[in-house]
Amino acid sequence: xxxxxxxxxxxxxxxxxxxxxxxxxxxxxIALIVLFLIILIAIFGPTLYPVDPFDMxxxxxxxxxxEGFIFGTDYLGRDLVAMIVHGARVSIIIGLSAAFVTVxxxxxxxxxxxxxxxxxxxxxxxxxxFFQVLPTLLFAMVIVALFGASLTMITIAIGAVSWTAVAxxxxxxxxxxxxxxxVTASRASGANNFILMFGIILPNALPPIIVQAxxxxxxxxxxxxxxxxxxxTDPNVVSWGQVIGSNRSYLLDASFTVTIPGAAIFITxxxxxxxxxxxxxxxxxxxxxx
Amino acid sequence: xxxxxAIATRIMYxxxxxxxxxxxxxxxxxxxxxxxxxxxxxxxxxxxxxxxxEIRATYxxxxxxxVQLGSYIGKVLRFDLGYSFFYTQPVSQLILQKLPAxxxxxxxxxxxxxxxxxxxxxxxxxxxxGLSSHFVSFFALFGYSAPVFWSGLLLLIxxxxxxxxxxxxxxxxxTIEGNFxxxxxxxxxxxxxxxxxxxxxxxxxxxxxxxxxxxxxxxxDYIRTAKSKGLTDREIIYKHALxxxxxxxxxxxGLQFSAVVSGAILVESVFSWPGLGTxxxxxxxARDTPTILGILFFSALVVIVGNLLTDLTLRLVDPRVRTxx
Lengths: 290, 325
Known about the structure:
Chain A is mostly helical. Chain A contains 13 helices and no strands. Chains A and B meet through helix 5, helix 6, helix 10 and helix 12 of A and helix 1, helix 6, helix 7, helix 11 and helix 12 of B.
C-alpha cells in the first residue's frame, strides 16, 4: 500500500453521514424507540387490548392498579388503558396527516414565492402574513365550530393555521439555493421551471423542512389535544385531550384521570421534539462542527 | 423622513390586513350553515318560511353579496360587531366587558416571561455548560412538549387542591368586598396559577433565544475590547451586551401575540378566568356565530396592533432596522 491511498477520503452518502450523526445523540435515539413503541400501540393496541373505550367496565374512579385496571377507571367507569390505547391512534393519525397538510401547503407557497420572486412572492408573503395574524387556536376553533367537528375537518383546520412557518423556511431556502451555480447550470442545460423547483432546488432545501415537519407533527398533536380538551372533537372517537376535558371536573376525586392522559400527550410530543432536535443536528452541516 | 415613510407603509399594511380579516369573517359567516334569521327564529322558538324571509329582509340578507359585504365592513369599522342573541347584548359590548380580565392575564404573563426568560438566558449564557444551561434546555423542552392545559391542571391539583395556597377558579372572591387593597390582593391570589401556566410556554422560548443571542454577542469583537479595557463582567453584560442581544427577543415576543391569545383560551378555560377566552369557548359551544366572529376579528386586531407596536419599538430601539422596509 503506498502513501497516496491512505489520504483518499472515501465519499460517503450524505444519508449515511446523517444517520451516524443521529445515532450519536442518545436522547434522540431513545426518543425514536419510544416513539416507535407508541406507533405500534396506535396500530396494534386496539386489537391486542380489545376493551371498548366507551364501555362501562367497573365502578367510576377506581384508582390505578386496583381490580386489574392498570390506569384505573374514569368518571363513567370506563377503562383508562383502553382510552389511552384508542386515543393513541387518533393522536398519531391527526399528527401525521395535519403535518402532511401543513408541509404540503407550506412547501407549495414557499417554493413559489422563493422561486418566482417579484409580485408572486409579494402576494404569497402577504397571504402568509395574514394567516400569521389570526390566533391559531381560535381560528381552528371557529373552523371546527362552523363546519363540524369531524377528524377530517380538525386535520384541515390544524393544517390551515400552521403552514406559515414551513412556508417561510421553504422560501428562505429557495431564495438562497436559486442563486447557486448548479441551479444556473441546470437552467442552462434546459431544465424547465417545474424540474428546477421540485427536481433541483427542493431536494437541496429539504433538511430544514424535514426538521420543521417533524416538529409540526408534535405541534399538531398538541393542537388536536387542545381542541378536544375544549370538547371540539368528534364525540364518537376517543382522544387523549378529550379524556382530560371530560374528566377535569372530578380533579378532587380522581386526579389520575387527568394526569395519565396528559402524560401520554407529553411523552409523545417530547419524543417528537427530541427526534426533531436529533434530526436538526444530523441534517444541519453547520452545526456538525460544534 | 425615511423613518416616517417606513412607519406609514407599516400602518398601511396593517390596515390592509385588517380589511382582509373582516372579509374572511364575512365569508365564513356566509359559508357556515344557518344565518341570522335562523338564530332569531330559534330564540323565538321556530318560525315559518314567510317570517324567516321577513327577518332576512329587515337585516338586509336578501341584498346582493357585495352590498352586504360593503355594509358589513362599514359596520365593523365603526366597531359594530353585530348582536348576540345568545347573550342578548351587542357583541362589541360583550367583548369590551371581558377584555380587561384577558389583558391583565396576558400582559402579566408576557411581562413575567420576558423578564425571567431574558434573565435566565443571560445568566446561563455566561456558563454554557453549567447547571443553569441544562436547566434552560430542559425547561425549553418541557415548555414545547407539555400541553398547556395539562400543566395548568397539574398546578391546580398541586397548589390549590392538595396544598390549598391558591383559589381553584375565577378571578375574584365574591365574599371579599370592601377596600381597594383587599380586592387587589384577592385578584393577585387568583392570578398566580394562570399567569405561571401561561408564562411557562413563553418563558421557555425567550430563555432559549436570549441565551443563544447572548452567547453570540459575547463572542464578538467589541466585547473582547470591553474586556481588555478591564471592565467587570457585570458591566460588560448589562451595559454592552444586553442591549444588542435584546432585539431578537423583542421581535420574537412581538410574533407571539397570536400564540398568546391561543394559550389564553386554554388557560382561561382551565382556571375559569372570566375573559375573552372563556367567552370564545362558551359562544362556540352555544353556536353563537356573531360573538365567535367578533372575537376572531378583535383578537386579529389585537395581534395586528401588537405587531405594529413591536415593529415601531424595534425601529426606535435598533438603528439597524430603522429604515428598512
